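User:
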Amino acid sequence: MANLLDYLDWRGDLTLEQAPFNEVDNLILSELSYLDFKGIVPPLGEKKRIPLAQAAKKFFVAHPDGERIDMGVMVPDQTPDMLKKMAASNRFGKMELGCCVDQVSAAGERAEQFAALAIDTGDGQIYCAFRGTDDTLAGWREDLELSCVPEVPAQKKAVEYVDTVAGTFRRKKLRLGGHSKGGNLAVYAGINCAPLVQRRITSVWSNDGPGFHVEVLDLPEHKRIEDRIFSIVPRSSTVGMLLEHEERYTVVDSDQLGLWQHDGFSWQVMGDHFIHLPELSEQAREGGLALREWLHGLTVEQRCRFVDALFQVLTTNGAETLTDLKEESLKGMLTIAKTMTELDKETRDCLIDFVQLLFWNNARMMLGDIQAQAGKRQKRNRKKAEQKAEAAEQKKSAKRD
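Assistant: Predicted structure:
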């Protein structure tokens, strides 16, 4: 099966003039925003840009060959390999990067994680790539706060970012996109940016990004741009089905199971597009419905208490990233368990219900994915057997003649 890296091998020699921008290009540029380009790519507000190939060279000077680049628990380790292939390609190497922003803050009452990159694709457009949730707990907290408040800090910054980029490059049209929370930010910015800026947007890409409160989808600003919003989700999507979602979305195949299909490098590519499927898996549809029903069963106040309690538990030992949690010792785990017991019963039960729901939904989706993959193998084997039998029959027929 083929993925983003194979696509770069197949089509990296084709410029955008030879083969127009497509959905796979969109995901590649979204994934690019996960890399740390601080001090390499010019910051927001400057017109100066740097060719991608040159930015890659500087990036790998800071990370010499042989040194493992730790992308954290959730960001794919293939991302630096993708950058190498992009830099060596005709398609991406001459694209120019600018307007770099990378901010993380867990201080105060509200968490915040925001990073973005503007990519001049060379076809008269700028792609604003918003980073999704990375390894930071601040970013994951902000994800969950989407269900509690009308606007999280990263959404507000995304709107400001697009308006600033549009003002910096006044002659360019705009594409917006991101993976995971980055997809949510792209759509939110497309809806809420200045009206004159919105007219310059040609497409908005949400790659398995969470949805919105229903009020957002009913806004006239959303109606004006909804035909330019492209949502892509894997067959067992969980993140992309959270909250309310555009009715129109594309389902793609993945070689991973369950929640791990959120990894964009697992999405299967054929030519200049992903392998499309007719619908989500039955398990994903039922799991998404169960999560939404659980969420709708809580008041906004209860949701906020749940988020506060969850991150009180996770950060009780000073953890700031998922990697920190993964490396916690047994003693650290015992401290977390003790913090759980100190919560009030309602909040503790809420946390337990959430974890159980997530666990069982993922288990059901993984089982469904295993069955689906087994069915594909059986189908391929039957086809091979039929082809072999047909070839043998043709051989016999030729001998008789």
